[in-house]
Amino acid sequence: MTLIDQTLLDALSTEARQAPRGRKNRNFHPSDDFPAHRLLNAIEPGSYVMPHRHLDPAKGETIVVVRGAVGIVLFDDEGAVTATHRLVAGGEVVGIDLPAGTWHSVLGLQPGSVFFEAKAGPYVAMQAAERAPWAPAEGDAAATAYQTSLAQRFA
């Protein structure tokens, strides 16, 4: 048993702030090959999650913000933004269920933001067809400017 309390959220957020990628997850599923993945993700402003999709029809994902605020950006196949959604813990919209195949990115909008994520396992590394060809890769020199342009949609 694990209690999801402020102490756990604080510790996870501290790890995210200290991590080079500005995010950290805490898995509740026992292994990567487990059929159901349940995890907390702490994400800080400025963390870049490259736009991606999950092509496996079983890999839709549900995101519910438990602290702070998270931005969800949806794209079409050419990379045009089709929608943005601000998810705020305790707000009017706290979560989103994304069907498999949906191009998306996730942004931390406030320091200390944490969301709960659920999706089908097992873990499979992202394939080339699941990475947005129109977006810079993580670590690419253009990634910071691209992430900033996405974050400005929530200003």
Automatic annotation (TrEMBL):
Database matches in SUPFAM superfamilies: RmlC-like cupins (SSF51182)
Residue ranges annotated for the Cupin fold metalloprotein WbuC cupin domain, each copy included: 4-87
Protein name: Cupin fold metalloprotein WbuC cupin domain-containing protein
Pfam family, one: DUF6016
Cross-referenced InterPro entries: Cupin_WbuC, RmlC-like_jellyroll, RmlC_Cupin_sf, WbuC_cupin
Coiled-coil intervals, chain numbering: none
Region Disordered: start-end pairs: 14-33
Superkingdom of source: Bacteria
